[in-house]
Amino acid sequence: MIVLLSAAILLKAVGVLAAIGVLAAIVLFFISKKFHVEEDPRIDQIVELLPGANCGGCGYAGCKNLAETMIQRGTMEGCTCPSNTKEKNQQIAAILGTEAADSTPMVAIVRCQGNCENAPAKVNYDGTTSCFLANSIFSGENFCPNGCLGCGDCTKACNFGAITIDPATQLPFVDETQCVGCGACAKTCPRGVIEIRPKGLKDRRVYVACNNKEKGAVAMKNCKASCIGCGKCTKVCKFEAITVENNLAHIDPAKCKMCRLCVKECPKGAIVAVNFPAPKPVEAPVEKPVEKTAETISATVK
Amino acid sequence: MKTFPMGGVHPNDNKLAKNEAFEVFPLPKQATIFMGQHLGAPATPAVQKGDKVKVGQLIGKAEAFMCANIHSPFSGTVNKVDMVADITGYKKTAVVIDVEGDEWMEGIDTSSELKTEITLSKQEIINRMKECGIVGLGGACFPTHIKYMLKPEQKVDYLLINAAECEPYITTDYRLLMEKADECIIGIQALQKASDAAHVCIGIESNKPDAVALLKEKTKNIPGIEVYMLKTKYPQGAEKQLIKSITGREVPSGKLPIDAGCIVNNLTTAHAVYEAVQKNKPLVEIYTTVSGKNLEHRHNFQIRIGTPLQDIYETVGIPENTGKIISGGPMMGKAMTNPNAFIVKGMSSILFMDESESKRGKALNCIRCGKCVQACPMGLEPYKLQAFSEAARYDDCEKYGIMNCLECGCCQFTCPAYRPLLDWLRIAKTKTGAIIRARKK
User: Which member of A280, B55, B258, B388 lies 3.0 to 4.6 Å from B396 by CB, making a disulfide possible if both were Cys?
Assistant: First the structure.
């Protein structure tokens, strides 16, 4: 008796649920027909081809917003993803039916060498580790008003985990394999220490690793590796790639042929060349940094 | 005894230099006078290299609305007009003067004779304050004349004179009251004339009973001036808290005291106004307390602006285990990045904190004890605002009233977990303020 009753209740319940389901499906079917929004299928296709990190490096609110803008404008001029690869950009251009915008791979560089050795701290900052706050309070532990503060706002701004504060130097270190050159770090830095530069042929770059805008004599007091605007590099450069403005040299990446004459000429070692093969007669400088990092690692382990 | 109803903390008042009479600090050999010593745009240098200047001569001209004139505190030759590092270490425009003597400009009364009768009219007093570069000497250095430039519909009911001196260590207001009370009262009367205020209220904290008694005695026969004893509680001397304590009025959020019918001036400012109005003396001299627990002799100096701090260190001697030198009070003052800076108008004290006092405790997790909420004199929730600030949720910060924050530091002072609440509140206030301004444009 009980079994029969419960079976009847069960059947009833299943029947009611099924009826509601069918009814809802019919209503939904008609509503979806009635209020259907025609969305350009290309938007989804383009979003597929974008990195999807929503880093905002393009200047738009995320990847989908960028894709919509591209479709609206029908071109990639002025609205490209700075971190996309060339192949994917070409595929996007094919979808849009235009030419691919010229995208040179970019990378963030840190224009400061004010580590503990070059620019020893004269005061001790024990406030919150925020560059924004530190910049509003004082000129820096080493008194350089243009150099890196080392509080790591750039590391927090990076969506790709490409920037870390090097414990040995207390300066940001950019992992080139991770950096996509979106420029989020450069926008966050209150002092404009980080510059977004073309990655360069074979990832080789020559740049001035300093952001000093003070007179040479003042800068020399604060930091051993500061650019003093002496202009020696401009004279030695055969391609007119270097200009000095506000006591600071700048190398135009478009004109630089990477001869590295300026690197040798700079009396302060402020010009840096990266990813070049080591010079044949091996000298001491290659070994030194290795020792130092080993030391600091053991120190942190302790 | 009056006080504000909400929040506040009780730091040890440490008025160590209370009994030290004012000493006139000797003139230095070379002085550096910054062009930006006040809130707002810096003044434009009005002298060039090689110019001869006299004491009281205009060397920095106020060209913007929010600006104050700067006068030469010394007579001598202009060495250069250059960028010089101030206490933050950033370089600011300054006039460097080789001091040759103490020759004053004509028309300035340098005698110590008391001039009781105020002959200038209301507008003349305001103009004189502007010409003489008077700024609020309580610490914020707000150009004083701007407070008195009222719109026709604005009316001043109360003129409040802030002699609370709620910051620990500082004793200049107290010393001024004890030594130059008559001058201060005439300055207050000049301010009353400039504002047409019906009531003048002087607020003094209860840890200075002798000053209250003295002032009550002196103002006995002057109608309209009342002296109030306030509870010793930080931040009793903050503008909004003082208004609430004495008048019971509340300044609406985002508005100025004038919107509550009040003008607040510091006692030291009133004294500077006396000198400007009665003696035609520009603001070239300030009063500053040099104090610290480890200092052998504490001082209250009457010192010219532009004097190198180095000279003070040589006179008093830096105590051995000094960890921090602070310009201003220990609660709201600034730790000096560059201790070899120069005296500016707002430097009401120079404090030597020893190493143990100057180190922060290690920040631990928030235990939601609510002490910061209790301590906040503006009724905010600092622990919550700090979390929002850290997460960059500035819209929520705005909703929870970050723009009302005084940056008084009560929350951080009281936090048992040593959390850097004020740091994050400052970040949030600056960033939220920028967002609000951008929205208005």
Answer: B388
Answer whether residue A69 is part of any domain: yes
Return the bridge partners of B322, or none. B354
Q: Quick check: A132 contacting B, CB < 8 Å?
A: yes
pLDDT score, position B57 = 94
Which pLDDT score, from 0 to 100, does residue A292 have? 43
Q: How many angstroms separate the CA of residue B77 from the nearest CA in chain A?
A: 25
Pair (A260, A162) in one structural domain:
yes
Which span out of A75-84, A117-126, A284-293, B425-434 was modeled with the highest average pLDDT? Answer: B425-434
Q: How far apart are CA B46 and CA B40, in angstroms?
A: 18
Same domain as A124, residue A269: yes
pLDDT of residue A289: 44
Q: Has this prediction a pTM greater than 0.90?
A: no
- A214: which chain B residues are within 8 Å (Cβ-Cβ)? 91
Query: For B214-248, what is each residue's pLDDT tens digit?
Result: 999 999 988 889 999 999 999 999 999 999 999 99
Q: Do A91 and A166 fall into the same domain? A: no
A137 interaction partners in chain B (CB closer than 8 Å)? 88, 334, 337
Q: Is A156 exposed, middle or buried (0-12, 13-18, 19+ CB in 10 A)?
A: middle
Evaluate whether residue A288 is within a structural domain. Answer: no
Determine the 3-state secondary structure of A238 from DSSP.
coil
Q: If you count residue pairs, one on A and one on B, with CB atoms under 8 Å apart, how many are there?
A: 42
Element (H, E) at B163: strand B158-163
Answer whether A132 sits within 8 Å of B431, measured CB to CB: yes
Q: Tell me which CATH code domain B1-24+102-359 carries.
A: 3.40.50.11540
> Do A85 and A189 belong to one domain?
no
Q: What is the CATH number of the domain that holds A165?
A: 3.30.70.20
Q: Give the mean pLDDT of A252-269.
A: 90
Does the pLDDT at position A102 exceed 70? no
* Residues A219, A183 within the same domain: yes
Same domain for A59 and A146?
no
Instruction: Answer yes or no: do A153 and A231 share one domain.
Output: yes
For A215, name the nearest residue in chain B, comparing CA atoms only. B83
For residues B225, B226, B232 and B233, what is the CA-based torsion angle, rounded to 10 degrees? -70
Residue A85 structural domain: 41-96
Closest-CA residue in chain B for A129?
A: B423
A136 contacts chain B (CB < 8 A): yes
- CATH number for the domain harbouring residue A48: 1.10.15.40
Chain A residues with CB under 8 Å of B85 CB are: 139, 143
Strand-pair category, A271-274 with B22-24: unpaired
Q: How far apart are the first and last CA of chain A?
A: 77
- A123 vs B: CB within 8 A: yes
- Spatial contact of B17 and B293, defined as CB atoms under 8 Å apart: no
